Each structure stands twice: as C-alpha cells, then as structure tokens.
Amino acid sequence: MSDRPETTVGTVIVSGATFGIGHDIAVYLAEAGYRVVGFGLEAAPVSSVATASVTALNAEAEKRALPLSFIAGDVTSAVDVSAAIDHALSFGNGLYGVINNAAIGPLGTVLDTEPDMFSRILEVNLKGPYQMCRAAVPHMAKRGGGRIVNVGSGAGWGKPNMAAYSASKGGLVALSAAMALDHFADGIAVNTVIPGGGGIVSGMSLGRVSGDQERLRGNAVGTVAGRIMNGQDLAGSIRFLLSEEAAAISGTIIDIGCFAHQGSSTPLPKQA
Question: Which is it for the CA torsion 243, 249, 251, 257, positive or negative?
Fold first, then answer.
C-alpha cells in the first residue's frame, strides 16, 4: 500500500480500535507502514453488537507481520489512557499521532435518555478524546510536533433522536478547533474527519437497528463514489492527515460521505 515505510515518524495510537471501523483504521495504517497501537475495550460497548478479543487481534497482527499491537482499556479511565500512551512510547520512536475514534451512540431524546446514560455518552465521546489528548500532547510537543485526528459525526450539528450523541459530537468539533489554535506553536495539527452518507456498517450503527443491515442501509444517500462509505474510506483520509502532504493542514473538517457537517443537506437524485 505504501511506497515508503512510515515507522520512522513515530507511533500512532487509535482508540476504539478493537471493534469495527476503529479496527479498520488501525489495520489500514499498519499496512501503510505506521507503527500502530490499537487501544480499546474487550467487551462490546453499550448500543454496539461488535465483538473482539485483544489476544486474538494481537495474534492476527503477528501472523501478518504488521507493526500493530493492541492493548485493552477504556478511554474514560485516566489509568488506562496512561498505560496505552506508555505502551505507544515503549517502541522508542516517539508518539506521532492520536486517532480519537472511540465512541458510543445510544439513541434518544432528552426525555428518554436517562441522566446516567447522558453522562456516559459525554464521558466516552468527549471526555475520552480530552483525556487522550491531555496525555499525548506533552510528548508530541517535546518531539517537535504531531498529528491528532478526531472522528466526529454529522450528528454534531444536531440530528433527531440523538440528543446526547449530538451534544457529544458537537463538543468534539469545538474541542478540535480550540486545540488546533492552542497547540499551533507546538507543531501539533488537530483535524476532524466526519463519516457520513448513512448506511455505514459498524458495531455502533448495527446496534441501533438490532443488527439488521437492510434496515441500516435503507434510504442511505451514500457517497459521491456511488456506494456506502466504508472503513477504508475513513482510514485513507486519516492517513492523508498523518502524511507529509498534510503538514500545513490544521483546524479543518473533512467529510467522508455526503455533506455530513452541513447538517441535513441532501444532494439531488440522479435525473432520468
């Protein structure tokens, strides 16, 4: 996949990497030559149907001779985050990138989202990236820079029946923008990628429809490529933001899909 090895730039850590799209991102980047640490839960998070085993994931990575290792942990735990960062640093080439992908997405309005669930969604989706960045930024600054990519959602601009999830993802967009300004002088680029277009197959999205892929795809708009967005589409955009070609890009949003950060914008259908 890569014309040159990327392992010399430093290690990249991907949260939520033991399941679905996060796992796709971790594998894609490792195949591209990055040294990758996949950080995530052993058990499926709330509202997800995903399954994983850190032991099995590490065995598969070793079998394929990928520069990829997985470590179990929860982004809401400062102890777990610190352990993941230490693991990434143990490879000796510094911490270059953080991909904040971990998230949960139970549906609900403010009326049918219990206070504890509202707090948990914000804790994972917003406090989790904060904790990852808080632990990583000093190491990146010390080495002269780095890249942070936050995985957002079109729900960050508000979507029905996603009150808490929308609040958490809107907060993440704002956090990304603030961090891009705060750490500009440290040489740390902070950007957001937004998977969109609907119909995306992941543990979270399938959990919302009881595992029914037909129902999930339904009336999904998809992408300009004429298909539903997949993990490689998202991972490819993240790889670009990690690359030297994106060295001058910070504080921006990249939609992978259909105008996700423009809220309800829907393209015209193909004319007969």
Answer: negative
Structure tokens, 145: 């820079």
| Contact present, 72 and 40 (Cβ < 8 Å) | yes
Q: Are 35 and 94 in contact (CB under 8 A)?
A: no
Indicate which residue of 28, 34, 96, 165 is catalytic.
165
User: What is the token pair recorded at 122?
Assistant: 């914000």
Neighbours of 184 (CB within 10 A): 13
Q: How far apart are the first and last CA of the chain?
A: 39
Q: Tell me the pLDDT band of 145, cut-offs 50, 70 and 90.
A: very high
Could you give the CA distance from residue 74 to residue 83 in angstroms, rounded to a whole number?
Answer: 10
Active site residue 130: no
pLDDT greater than 80 at residue 72: yes
3-class DSSP state of 115:
helix
Q: How far apart are CA 114 and CA 211, in angstroms?
A: 23
Q: Span 218-223, mean pLDDT?
A: 65
Q: Closest Cα partner for 199 from 230, 234, 238, 154?
A: 230
Per-residue pLDDT, 262: 55
Q: Is the pLDDT of residue 40 over 80?
A: yes
Q: Would you state the pLDDT for residue 9?
A: 82
CATH architecture of 7-262: 3-Layer(aba) Sandwich (3.40)
Check pLDDT > 70 for residue 1: no
Separation CA 257–CA 152 (nearest Å): 12
